[in-house]
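User:
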Amino acid sequence: MKTLFIRGIIGVVVFFCLCACHDEEIKPQRERTVLVYIAGDNNLSYFSSRNMEGMMKGMKEDYGNLIVYWDQPNVTPKLLELKAMKNGSVNQRIVKEYGEENSASPAVLARVIRETQKLFPAKSYGLVLWSHGTGWFPESPSVKARSFGEDHGSEMDIKELAAVIPDKFFHYIIFDACLMGAVEVFYELRNKADYVIASPTLVPAEGLPYEQVVPYFWGDDSDLEKICKAYYDFNNTTTETATIALIKTSELDALYLLCQEILQGKLSEIQAKDKSSVYQHYVPLAVINYTFYDFADFIRQVATPEEMVKFNAQLKKVVRYCAATPYFWDLVPVDKDKFSGISTYIPFPDWPGLNNYYFTLSWSGVYGL
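Assistant: Predicted structure:
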């Protein structure tokens, strides 16, 4: 009787273990898992649905794990697996359902990254961050902007974003969000991924052409350039208003040191300059326009010819690909001779509140303060 009782207990334990495994099934290790994090509980929700359709169409083969965290208005967030089936269809499986939560919270993003790593282990990982974006900008009562994400007025500070992404974890991070292509953003994320893809200007609401770019998510480094080129080509034939750049983060520290040599001790001289002398990336948002300058053109205003030669050589190592359509937003022409693919902020005295925050960012150390 004791033996039968023990066997019965073991059977019950095994049953519940199997049930737990079914609820949180851990997949075998793949070459790469890609997480698309859609913070779409905002006015971009319609386009998140369009982009999900594009991902489904783009998943033509079983390339690897494609995992989507999707938050929309009036719908509780879900973690989904998109999987190509042998019959050519794509299965959308609900991995987890959550209660109402703030998808612009760093804690939520951190949890989703941990869950994805646990449930879909891989040799490498990719991350797509989908939402609104305003570069490195802080939360401010006078400036309605705060780097990445938007969920009922809540947004994610760039330093908070960097803090919850594990070091050396992602092979690439792609921002499907406006204005994230700033040197300040790239430098905060330099230890988080090997490559970052972002736009230094506004991103059309349609975002990435996912049907075209999804097959490149699992490729080598040359496929990251193909993602950028597909985005450029798509917009060049439709909106004609898009910019994109591919950044190699391992080269950013050397760029920082060069810029420190050029800029250190020159803040007063820089602040006395005429703002219009530096090429601006047009942004049709009155509060933050005239604060996104072209990075290379700014350095050109300060550097000696010898320093500029070194700077240009290093910038080529950092920017592996960049492209711009003929126009910024509102049909403002792009000067491609001055467009470097990266934006920067210049701490002119007009923006004391922004300057106070700016000098807490890692990149601001180039001024030697």
